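Bug #77: duplicate submission created two jobs. Keeping one. Sequence:
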Amino acid sequence: MRIILIGFGSVGNSFAKILHQSDGELLQRFGLRPRIVAVVDRGGAAVDPHGLYFEKV
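Kept job's structure:
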């Protein structure tokens, strides 16, 4: 599952943390491997079609 975040304030950041922490459970329970492939805000965008590393965003 590819995800694009519009905004990376408190809500976007918290959502990304939850996805990162729940990665194994989402794969095991639902067969989903969520990847944040882009983060966009008023300052620009970070995009990687293979997925961004949460720690570096």
